[in-house]
Amino acid sequence: MGRIYNVLQILGLALIATYIASCNGKADLPFPGSHLGDSVIDDGGGGSRSDIDPGQLYVVTKIVAASSDITSWADADLPFNRPRRQLGVSSTDSQWPFEFGFTYPANNYALTEAHLLMVTSRDASDTEAIFVDGVFTGRPPDSMVSTTSTKVTHRLYNCRTVECGGAIAPTGPTNNFFLDWALTHYKVSTDNTFDINLQNLLTNTALTIADILSDGLLRVVTGDDAIVRDDNAGSSTSRPLLVMVGSTYSTTALTCNISPTYYMKNNYLFVDGNSIAQPAFTGSVLTPFNSSASPYAAFRSVEFYYDPRLPTLTSYDLLNITKGDLWLQLRRANTDPTAIVINGIGIDQDGFDRNTADPAVVESWSSDAVVRASWNTFVTGISADSSLQTRTLNLLSLLGASTMKSLLQQGKLNIAVAGPIARIQASAATSTRTYGVQVTGPELILEGNYAAEICEVPDNPNSPLNGGGVVPSVCTPPDPDVLAPTLSSIQVINITSSSATIQWLSSLETSTSQVGYGLLAPSTTTTIDNTPVTFHSVNITGLLPYKFYQYNVRSVDACGNETISTSKSFRTLR
Fold first, then answer.
1. SS3 452
2. How far is it between the farthest Cα atoms of the chain?
3. How far apart are CA 215 and CA 1, in angstroms?
4. What is the pTM assigned to this prediction?
5. What stretch of H or E contains 12?
6. Nearby residues of 430 by Cβ (< 8 Å), 6 or more positions away
7. Are the beta carbons of 288 and 424 closer than 8 angstroms?
8. DSSP H helical segments within 307-464, as ranges?
9. Lowest-confidence segment of 30-39, 137-146, 562-571 by average pLDDT
10. What is the domain partition of the chain in residue ranges?
């Protein structure tokens, strides 16, 4: 139980498991991305060890369930001036306050990411707002904003009207992330597990997630018509959760336990095109909106994708996807063979011309008879008369649960449909999605449950994460330091489609921080951080989606002795 893996290790293991499973009767899958870069993943296995490196970094997760109210606050303290409701109570023009109480590690801890998860919805009014630890953001109805609450320290909401309708005007640049996130991800008037990165709710403030969480208390209030659920789904719960992911240092295996089981459900809205800017098929490539409006005359494909948010966990072994449906309204023009590609996996009918596919994107074609028969049954069940029909494609049955989970872990779910069913209905282009314009079209419906391995953070005031354990460098005779720093625990965390964070330790002595990275070699370097530390963390941005990057880390001690690690690699998400 003491083993903790970082996100990249888990993704690599999941892909290996997927490949093994494919040999036993499911779709034939190589390592996804094998045509987009070097297929060998080496992230260091949690860090190298040496005689003078008595410990290493571990990624740890903490999950905290919310209370059903903020009992210490009077109504006048709340950010909205409408009735307060407890979690799970359905109402309109109301507010739902709740709080998280927890023990924040006193030392030996570096918080890297924090997420707020809550099962809620948005209505067609496009007015939703949220208060998080003094920061009030979103797009609230003007008349609902409290003008007397002393708990609001940052008024960054986006007034619905220019004059704010009598509400207190914003005190700085507005932050509309809460509503924009819902607008681009979730279906209207449908319960979804909103997964909100807390740092995004702090944009336009000087606050960090560590600032608002280090006191062990986080207070949240949502307002308008969106009930915050507090239901049980079998043995799991949908109560709001705070998920914190950070790093700790230990010389021995950590003490860990398994969390309770939590519930997740989402109806994701589609996005036009694909997330890697490389179509799966040659020829005419359309989006759902223009494919439904354009008659089918010659071979073509339609592409769209989803941004499914899995719970932020250090291990996905305890994630169980129980429902994975693709809901479509589409037209079938004739009986020519068709194909679908899902994150590089191609499934087609007999007679389909695979030469129309780009092998750099369509990484494998399934030869599994059951999988291909399932796709054929789905297609032939659509009348070939160009009439609009509603169908649900069961992705779990088509791909298998293990493969489905592995594909979701790639960060995006890219769908390409080719042939006479490339006429997918959508009400508008997603580029026009804004307030008052509801875009409808193909939906991804996910449900499942998950738990997490929760590990204790060892108390260690002398941890390198606190700047401890340092041996001063002596650079002058008679015994000057001529040894370069020993680098260990080199690992990649917080990988996205365009960024990643590299962290490592320099044992015993402080040193600078720099990362080299590139597609073929570590040819680009980050700006040197000359702050002398033993725990190093460097964020690299501007990366391309779904590519393998080579990287190394570099540290220079106070005497000018430099160590450059061997090159390792990681893959960005789609």
1. coil
2. 90
3. 28
4. 0.88
5. helix 7-22
6. 184, 269, 270, 271, 272, 287, 289, 439
7. yes
8. 369-380, 395-399, 401-408
9. 30-39
10. 1-54+467-574, 58-244+256-261+451-455, 279-304+317-439
Backbone angles phi, psi at 270, to 5 degrees: -80, 160
DSSP strand pairing (300-306 vs 413-418): antiparallel
Q: How far apart are CA 152 and CA 131, in angstroms?
A: 8
Q: Chain centroid to CA 378: how far?
A: 31
Write the pLDDT tens digit of every residue in 109-150: 999 999 999 999 888 777 889 999 999 999 888 788 898 899
What is the number of residues in the chain? 574
The dihedral region occupied by 225, where left means phi > 0, alpha psi between -120 and 50, and beta the remainder, is alpha
In tens, the pLDDT along 241-262 reads: 999 999 999 999 999 999 999 9
Instruction: Check residue 401 and report its DSSP letter.
Output: H
Q: Which two tokens stand for residue 184?
A: 């681009």
Choose among 464, 505, 514: nearest CA to 47.
505
374, two tokens = 């399932």
Please answer whether residues 499 and 539 qualify as being in contact, where contact means their C-beta atoms are separated by less than 8 angstroms: yes
Mean pLDDT computed over every residue of the chain: 87
Strands (E), 259-332: 262-269, 271-272, 284-286, 300-306, 319-330
Q: Which two tokens stand for residue 415?
A: 């769908």
Tell me phi and psi for residue 377, to 5 degrees: -65, -40
Query: Quick one: how many helices (H) and strands (E) in the chain?
Result: 8, 33
Question: For residues 385 and 59, what is the distance between their CA atoms, to the nearest angstrom?
Answer: 55
Tell me: the pLDDT tens digits for 286-317? 999 999 888 999 999 999 999 998 998 888 99
Alpha helices in 326-400 (DSSP H): 369-380, 395-399
The fold of the 1-54+467-574 domain, in CATH, is Immunoglobulin-like (2.60.40)
Identify the CA nearest to 120 among candidates 32, 206, 229.
229
Place of tokens 């339609």: 302
CB 27 within 8 A of CB 403: yes
Where helices occur in 333-467 by DSSP H, the ranges are 369-380, 395-399, 401-408
Q: Supply the pLDDT for residue 43.
A: 38
By CB neighbour count within 10 A (0-12 exposed, 13-18 middle, 19+ buried), where does 142 fall?
middle
Distance CA 168, CA 156 (A): 10
Provide the pLDDT for residue 170: 84
